[in-house]
Specification:
The chain is α/β, with parallel strands linked by helices. It is built from 15 helices and 19 strands. Helix 1 runs parallel beside helix 9 (222-234) and helix 2 runs parallel beside helix 15 (469-488).
């Protein structure tokens, strides 16, 4: 008889793990607390508009291809990808922006137009970033974070210095133009840490950005979740929604024996949590928790976010599908997130208008807008603050893009710290996990396998390899391999 596995949560990592485990012959049941699957990658539908609530950037398509290839499938069997051109634009002032297009040649030209001689420096920087990408994405991130020796290979020994310098140091050494430097520092924000805390090796994110490009799945990122659901179900995975897990049961031998849902006990041979790691451990009696509250409080978490989902009654001008607003001081905003947590006086923000690319996102002649302000996790969140900050960014948005949009707002919905906690049991309301700093890389992250409870495992953005959608897919694969190894011993 096949072994049974309960998986808590249905985000990218949990769904990925469920597919691998079902393929390997396990009897898999997913328990999702919300009414719909996807974890942080859910959808909001309203008045003919469709928004991705969570991730909106599709980077590293090769990781998605590798995932589906493990099941003899391709992404194109489930959804249609479009490469965005331009990938995004970055505003630095009124009608003053730099556009990042869809090929390296065009990006070199944009840099050269901004600062003479910068294209040559950029080419050298991207060549190194590509080399790091090949090492990281094709090898290192597919290691389970069990031992420091995973990082020691002939190739990484050559790159050891890149773990002790930072992205910011490397970029600022070569690029004196602050605008270009900020564009090069931007991709590591997806790793949850500021560029001054992110090891140089993570420049592979710049290759993901410039070298591979930015894509959009037709009908939105949620199509990837639906694809994974279809695959999981075809492999025999059972998915239960509106099924919050209240407790993980442990027997007298210190072994996980199942979960409690709606006061009902469900017995399983193995328990895997793809839910927030800190929350998952609160489902255990204290003596079975690997990490104390003081451990979590000392860790550097990725930011939380204030998000707005806005329906406009007209098409907007002077924006692209992805548009960044860097017209204020990044370092001051970063301090407000990481050093002295507070609401920023002048926040950077990001806006996405999927309806520019995808007609399914909004009714004809209308625009769907998603606005995001990065915030410190754990700060106060209330309706008054949300309203105040919407006014701040929409006033700047109108001024920077030279258009009046306030009167065209049909509706706006918001999502912030309290919602991340309520909907995802997210530690301090963080938006996407634990930051990839030097001391939170690989084997220094929380473990995939519990050191205190037998047959208990974890996956997702707080463990290996780290935050982001592609790493979450990889995390699901890593934990499935670990479970297999553990059960074959």
């Amino acid at each position: 008889m096949s072994k049974t596995i309960a998986i808590i949560g249905s985000g990218f990592s949990a769904l990925a793990a469920s597919c691998y485990l079902a393929k390997d012959g396990y009897d898999v049941t997913i328990f999702e607390k919300n009414e719909t699957i996807g974890g942080r990658a859910r959808q909001l539908k309203k008045d003919g508009f469709t928004f991705d609530i969570g991730p909106t950037w599709y980077w590293m398509p090769d990781v998605f291809e590798r995932f589906f290839a493990d099941f003899n499938k391709t992404p194109s069997e489930y959804y249609t990808l479009e490469k965005l051109n331009p990938a995004y634009s970055v505003y630095f002032g009124k009608d003053d922006f730099i556009t990042i297009e869809d090929t390296l040649e065009k990006i070199y030209a944009a840099f050269e137009a901004e600062e003479q001689g910068s294209s040559k420096k950029l080419k050298k920087f991207i060549d190194n970033a590509q080399d790091n990408y090949n090492v990281a994405i094709k090898d290192l991130v597919y290691r389970p974070g069990v031992s420091p020796f995973e990082l020691v290979t002939p190739v990484t020994m050559r790159k050891v210095g890149q773990f002790f310098s930072t992205i910011k140091k490397d970029v600022r050494k070569e690029f004196k133009n602050n605008r270009l430097a900020q564009i090069l520092e931007f991709p590591v924000l997806f790793l949850g840490a500021k560029p001054s805390n992110t090891p140089s090796f993570y420049s592979f994110m710049n290759y993901a950005d410039f070298g591979i490009g930015t894509f959009h799945p037709k009908k939105g990122m949620y199509q990837v979740i639906l694809a994974m659901e279809t695959l999981a179900k075809s492999l025999g995975v059972s998915i239960k929604t509106s099924a919050p897990v209240d407790k993980i049961n442990i027997n007298s031998d210190g072994k996980a024996t199942g979960v409690v849902v709606h006061d009902e006990t469900h017995d399983f041979d193995i328990v895997l949590s793809g839910a927030d790691y800190h929350h998952s451990e609160t489902l255990l009696d204290k003596k079975y928790r690997q990490y104390s509250e003081s451990y979590w409080s000392k860790k550097v978490f990725a930011p939380s976010s204030l998000l707005f989902y806005v329906g406009f009654d007209k098409k907007l001008k002077n924006v692209n599908h992805h548009t960044l607003f860097f017209d204020v001081d990044f370092d001051i905003h970063a301090k407000d997130i990481y050093d002295t947590p507070r609401w920023p006086d002048n926040p950077l923000f990001y806006a996405s208008f999927p309806s520019i690319t995808d007609e399914s996102s909004a009714p004809e002649g209308k625009e769907a807008g998603i606005f995001l302000i990065p915030l410190a996790p754990g700060i106060e969140d209330n309706e008054g603050l949300r309203a105040e900050y919407f006014e701040k960014i929409i006033a700047r948005f109108e001024a920077l893009t030279s258009q009046d949009v306030r009167k065209s707002i049909i509706f706006k919905e918001s999502f912030c710290v309290n919602d991340f906690i309520k909907d995802y049991n997210s530690y301090k309301g963080n938006a996407y996990g634990m930051a990839n700093t030097l001391l939170q890389t690989a084997f220094l992250r929380p473990k995939l396998k519990s050191g205190k409870v037998k047959n208990l495992f974890f996956t997702g953005q707080l463990t290996v390899p780290g935050p982001g959608v592609p790493p979450s897919l990889i995390s699901g694969k890593l934990v499935a391999e670990l479970i297999n190894k553990h059960n074959s011993n």
